[in-house]
Every structure is written in structure tokens, then in C-alpha cells.
Design brief:
single chain; alpha/beta; Glucose Oxidase, domain 1; 11 strands; elongated
Length: 306
């Protein structure tokens, strides 16, 4: 089924790049993207928004996406290198499948014609740009499913400044650890990558239960990974700002009151009219009139939803 999907995508106008969506198809499949695009057609969420995402949590993303109908964007149960570092960036996808010699002969010949060098994993690594995150579907393979060792991990980090997601394995963990890059993997193994073939670059892929598109924003913390469609990034950030201010006001109120208020008086929304007025005034002062009005309208729209 996945291979049939790949062939369908490749037949939609890949213009000779058999295993890569064309720029036109990427634009069509990500038509709701509100931001500029990279040269390859992927959505390009601005760098300043990626920096703002450092203050996010998985839970703040979860508060938005399922309510929009996007229930298949999260994947957990990873082994992590450097869990203290968040992983944030623009997705570049790669799909591998178990080796089939006749198909791989065509893939290898095609890659040679295009001037690709090294192993098929290097073909993808060589296209990475600053801010990209390599997201690799290696179908959970551990032994012989090691996408990188320490040298290629350094190549990824030098090219992107971010990290790596591999639904498979890595090798040379002790060599990769000093690079100080976040890595999400299913496991590690001393073997090298073999008995697999690269069947897609910048196409839709499946990572566990999540559907991932090129140009999605991957967000990773200790809780797992979210793959965020670009059209929701701004809303997630705006709602997170309100959440942070809510938490600041609520905690300070509990501290200052020294037991005067019950938890239900303040959390999750002030119960008493005078506290509500105080809280809303605090929000307006912190957000500014324009952003505060935008917040009020979004809250009103949510209350009208069935």
C-alpha cells in the first residue's frame, strides 16, 4: 500500500525525479501554508517563529491540533539523545524500504545519473539546509537500520544546526553524544546500514502513528514528537503566550494570597467577577490591545463551536 502510494505521487508530475515530489505537487499538497516557501516548494515557517517555539511544550500543541481534526500528528515512545534540548525545525522526509534488488538497481542508476554520491542515506543528508530536520522512515529497523554514525551525524548537525528523527536506529552513540544534538530514535546497534533502499525524498511518510509532510514543523521535547502543519504554527504560539501569562498570574495570585483563595477560585479561569476583571486587565496589559482583541475573538469563536 505504501509503495503504491509512492508510485502514485511520483506519477503526478515529478518531472524525472522518480522518488521526489515536484515543487508544484508540494505546493498543491500544502496549499494551506500561509508562509513563503523554500526553493524545493516546502513551506518555510519564519526563523523568528521557530525561535518562539523554544518556550512551547507538547501539551500546548496538543491543546490546538486535535480540536482542528489533526489527531495523527503525535508520536511518542522514543529513545532520546540530549532530552534536555528541544528539537525544532522544518521537516525533510526520507523513506526507506526493505531491499528489493530489481527496484534498487533502478534507484542506484537514477541516483548516479543525478550526480548523487556515497550511500543512499548520504543522498538525503547532502540536500539539508540550515533549520531543516531530517525525519527518516526506516520502518522501525534496528539491526542494519542505522541511518547514521558519528561522522554523518556531524554532517547533519553542521548542515542544519538542529537534530535528527529516525524511525529506526543509529550507531556510534558514544561518538554522537558529544555533538550535543537532539536525536529521536527507536534504538541503537553497532551494525551499518544495509539491506534497505531509499524509496522517497520529501514525500508524505508515516512515523509511527503520525503522518508527516515535507515542510511540517517538528517539535520534540521529553514528551515525544509533534509534526505541526504550518498553518497552525501562529495559532499555537499565540495560545501558548496566553497560557504562559495565565500560569504567571495564577501562581502569583496563589502565592500573594497566602491561602485566601481556593484552587477553584483561580484555576482554570477566575471564578469571582473581581478576579476575572483583574485577570483580563493583566492579559490586556501584557498582550497589548491588538493581540488581546484577537485572543478575545478566538475565545468567542471556540465557545460557539458545538
Amino acid at each position: 500500500m505504501r509503495f503504491a502510494t509512492l508510485l502514485l505521487l511520483c506519477s503526478l508530475g515529478a518531472q524525472g525525479q522518480v522518488f521526489q515530489m515536484s515543487k508544484e505537487d508540494l505546493i498543491r499538497y500544502t496549499a494551506k501554508n500561509p508562509f513563503p516557501r523554500s526553493d524545493d516548494g516546502r513551506p518555510r515557517v519564519p526563523d523568528e517563529m521557530l525561535k518562539r517555539m523554544q518556550d512551547l511544550s507538547i501539551e500546548e500543541i496538543w491543546a490546538v491540533l486535535p480540536n482542528k481534526g489533526y489527531i495523527n500528528q503525535f508520536e511518542g515512545n522514543w529513545r532520546l539523545l540530549h532530552p534536555e534540548r528541544k528539537l525544532i525545525g522544518r521537516v525533510v522526509t526520507a523513506q526507506f524500504m526493505p531491499m528489493r534488488p530489481d527496484v534498487n538497481e533502478v534507484i542506484a542508476a537514477d541516483g548516479q545519473k543525478k550526480g548523487n554520491h556515497g550511500g543512499q542515506n548520504q543522498w538525503v543528508i547532502d540536500i539539508l539546509k540550515p533549520g531543516d530536520v531530517m525525519v527518516v522512515d526506516l520502518f522501525g529497523k534496528i539491526e542494519d537500520g542505522t541511518f547514521v554514525g558519528d561522522n554523518l551525524a556531524e554532517a547533519i548537525h553542521s548542515a542544519t544546526g538542529t537534530g535528527l528523527v529516525v524511525d529506526g536506529a543509529i550507531r556510534d552513540v558514544d561518538g554522537i553524544f558529544p555533538i550535543d544534538m537532539p536525536v529521536y530514535m527507536r534504538g541503537s546497534h553497532p551494525s551499518a546500514l544495509r539491506n534497505v533502499m531509499l524509496t522517497g525524498v520529501n514525500i508524505p511518510i508515516r512515523i509511527g502513528k503520525a503522518t508527516v509532510m515535507p515542510g511540517d514543523i517538528v517539535f520534540g521535547d521529553r514528551g515525544g514528537l509533534y509534526f505541526i502543519p504550518p498553518q497552525f504554527v501562529e495559532e499555537i504560539l499565540d495560545k501558548a503566550d496566553v497560557t504562559h501569562l495565565h500560569d504567571e498570574w495564577t501562581k502569583n495570585k496563589f502565592i500573594q494570597s497566602k491561602g485566601k483563595y481556593k484552587s477553584s477560585d483561580l484555576y482554570g479561569y477566575p471564578r469571582l467577577p473581581e478576579l476575572r476583571d483583574e485577570y483580563e486587565a493583566f492579559l490586556k496589559s501584557k498582550l497589548g490591545p491588538e493581540r488581546y482583541e484577537k485572543y478575545r475573538k478566538s475565545m468567542a469563536a471556540e465557545r460557539r463551536q458545538p
